[in-house]
Structures
1.
Amino acid sequence: MSAALAAAAPGAPLRRISSYLYGRRGLYLALLLAPPLLWLGVVYCGSLLALLANSFFGMDEFSGMVKREFTLRNFVELAAPANLDVMVRTVTMAAAVTLGCAVIAFPIAYTMARYTRGALRAAFYLGVMLPLWSSYLVRVYAWKLLLAKEGVVNWAFAQTGMSWLLEALLAVPGIGGPSLSISSLGTFIVFVYIWLPFMILPIQAALERVPQSLIEASADLGARDAATFRKVIFPLALPGIVAGSIFTFSLTLGDYIIPGIIGDSSMYIGQVVYLQQDTAGNVPLAAAFTLVPITVMAVYLAIAKRMGAFDAL
Amino acid sequence: MTAAVAFEQVSCAYGAVLAVDRVSLEIREGEFFTLLGPSGSGKTTCLRMIGGFQFPTSGRVLIHGADATRLPPYERDVNTVFQDYALFPHMNVRDNVAYGLMVRGVDRAGRYRRADEMLELVHLPGMGARRPSELSGGQRQRVALARALVNRPRVLLLDEPLGALDLKLRESMQVELKALQRQVGITFVFVTHDQQEALSMSDRVCVFDRGRIEQIGTPEEIYDRPATRFVAGFVGAGNLLEGAQARALAGSDAPVMLRAERIRIAARGDAAGPGRRAVNGVVKEVEYLGAFIHYIVEVAGGTQMLVNQANQGEGAAQRNFPRGAEVTLSWMDAACHRIGAGAG
């Protein structure tokens, strides 16, 4: 045995590297972290800083070229009523989508965490995640067909004699329109559908961490199911809901594809950014616009942190 | 007097597995009753059926004479101390203890006053503002006790509450629990797999194996007169002599249980004394435990006997023997307990 060890030990270069690193944890960590830190630090943070810098640049009116001089004109322009409209609309939609996702996701997550195991649990996971593995565009266009005037949703309402309800909904100013696929209500429905997995999974993870004995202890001490839900299950699931809402809220804030395909012609922040940097070629204004969702998210995360959403991480 | 808890032919199955098999028992009002058995013996399932977390597949559970077979936990005048304590992590200690009062609609001032009283009772005064995560295992255990007692239940269920504590703490909690039970004067139903714990705390012990009751009795009865081979083997250390061994060493046709500490070990040739049965042997193993010394002695016929001798130290009349020593074992005939032929 000692002969075999002696034969293997000195020659192998990998072995020498490994022995060299074994006593030098700091170097080992540095090697491990260098690639991701370079990526995050230079590519991600660097481009964010470039964005920030761009938002303080101006445009040459005649040539359409970016003038690298400090100006606050972009931010003045942001405060124009039309732009404020876009911001309010986007934040309202993000909040509504988050609420809608939470309401729909909770019962699914609860069922998964408390009443399934083994193969059934796996089937639920698959059902929740499968949509994420298919193309986002395909799913959005599929919804356009479902929600169209000639689509299956309209047909189902007609068949069940509920067309009056749909028409009443579509008649509501602000959310309605000629058909679901050309209304804010439609935009909302598709947003909720697309982001739902991002809400289900964290809630499910939070609920799964609640030991059965806590629920039994609550019942043991005299709480009926409703009281147990309010006093024990919901408070312990709240960090999961907040974590999920960070996803749904930020994803809705930045999305420009869904409102472009489904909905009336009203604009959202993502679309304005896209148009400004692409069609209009006004990169500085687009950069200033992207700071809006970043700021909103920073405030949102600060609130979430105060609510203890990250305590469970 | 009506029993605090009564089981009538209770069975409970998990799928194809019969966890509890036609168990009937009566727990008297005010006693410290222990369900003892190895893991998977059905003792915890029985406790859960008293608490209402598990319903029997057949049979009836009565609590203070009233049928509680399918009553949900919140309808029962019974509270539980859970094995993992099950303290609510999002509430401080006071809110945890006051939980049972809160869900019953007691106002804040009233329930906090009573919660502080309960914390006083379990020797944790002034800890109300702490979070459960800031407490030690022993303190969490006391909070769980206070929380379970806050509703003044008539029966308290304890599911291996001392299992997670270290030895010293466990021993002091045993004394405290027993004292607490005397103080509040309610029925305690205690589940454990630790026979020492069962013997030291209980008024009566019920020994379980494979979903069935092996024996119910006082600690003395369980220890000195085990009804079955299982009880003889599970509770305490001893020698179970069967067949030819029993005939040769104890003159009995039935299996015989001879406790290790009832055997005297002496140098070969020392007089055994009147009324004692003696047998020669050779020490095969010595295990030095401090207060005690365990010997394994091989006697005529190849039977290995476990002998437990109090360590009297150097210079005492009783000597300690090394491995290979030639010795004589002796015991009183009365020390041999015949195990009922039908049982076991």
Note: Residues 239 and 258 of chain B are 5 Å apart (CA to CA).
2.
Amino acid sequence: MSAAAVPVTLDVTDTAPIPFGRLVLVELRKAFDTRSGRWLIGVTAGLALVADLLIAIVLAVQDEKLQYGDLVAGAAFTCSVLLPIVGIMLVTSEWSQRTAMTTFTLEPRRMRVISAKLLAGVLLTAFIIAFALVVGLLCNLLYGVLGGSLDWHFGWRGFGAFIATQTMTMIGGFALACLLLNTPAAIVGYFVYKWMLPVIFAFGSLMAWFEKISPWLDFQSAQGYLYEDPMTAERWGQLAVSGFIWLVVPFVIGIWRIRRAEVK
Amino acid sequence: MSVSSAPTTLDVSQTASIPFGRLVRVELRKLADTRAGRWLLIAIAALTLLVLVIQLAVVLGQDLHPKYIDFLQGMNTPMGVLLPVLGVLSVTSEWSQRTAMVTFTLEPSRVRVIAAKFVSILIISVLALVIGVILGALANVLYGAFSGNTVVWGSAGKFAVYYLLLYVFGMATGFAFGALFLNSPAGIVIYFVYSFVLPTIFGIAAALMNWFESLQPWIDFNFSQSPLIDGTIAGNDWAKLVVSGVIWLVVPLVVGVWRIRRAEVK
């Protein structure tokens, strides 16, 4: 009985790794199934619905013209403000709610978790876009019932631009969240980026030298061109350069940070 | 040795209660001495300076003729957006950082703590105003020195009062939303929805419906504050400010304080 205790080992070599699909499902559920996530998505959908209902009813009563595309745009504007916050919370809530320990214990490969989160964010964007289409459809029908003449005109160009900008906005929020790993900081940073930076850019562009370089720095204006005007090679270039600055750089630094961050 | 031990009592009747001034000092320190608060203050200062420098460069380069109030308006963009966040965090951080237990154990009268927090954000508003007024004056003087044009001050004293009101309204509204939700992300997001999304919706509604256009100044607090920003407030603008302020500032504040008095501290 004097033999030293044999160290216990757990043989996990035969355990299959967690399939990526399951990780994505779990991350989607985290976005929907927490109090903050549920309320955020509820408020986003509710605001979009209210905005579209208002537009449809008022325009029908006042006998003004309305196109399906207008309704989709109305819902889209409302969603675009809050959707990135869902993306932010997907990342930061792991730290603020201290679930990171569980998450990264069950799946120690952090990059797989981050990819699953990013995919969940993109899926949510698709869901919101589909939601905007359906709400627009219902409100357009309502507009018809109330006596307006139905117009199903829908700008495909605008729709494509809408999908692209929404996805980039979501990823932008996601990148900022990876960078800061703190919910309030990321939300405030995002609003500063979205609402204050354009003012500063517009203001600075009064100076000739800054006006020349500002299209290459201003990611939001560069995205705006997707909706209208021909996309020249220069505009694509500006989109790529400014997107690199505001999307790729924070994202790369953020992922580097998550890979090394202490999980507490 | 069979005597049961007498229940121990702590006689605190002679202990003086915490003076209100100390509570205010503590709350001020919580705003500046935490990581979130410190970075927010640094961000506000940095963005304000950045805007001012850009503005100065633009007016000099373009040979524009700014007045003193134009510089105040420029600085109002960063301050107006970020100061209210400080107001939100001053309330909600007690819940999110779980310090409420300590705070309300040391001073069980919750209303006194809330009052101290409110006074501390008022002090920050005054500080913001003083810094803003001085920086604006500096920019205006520099503009005069570099351009050689006459410097226009306007009714500088009156503008200072208007901007003090703006900062107080902004921080107090953030404070009220924070008290209402007791959750940092929720308070911040709802505040930004209120200050960025709501004006757009109100604007569309006003453009579509005549009756709403005449109603809007009375119920849209953002809208009724704009005469303060450009310094043209007069007549019944004040009444509109009061009515819309009751809706968006006083009501949430009262409900929020009621909620804090009853909220479970965990």
Note: The CA atoms of residues 46 and 141 of chain B lie 21 Å apart.
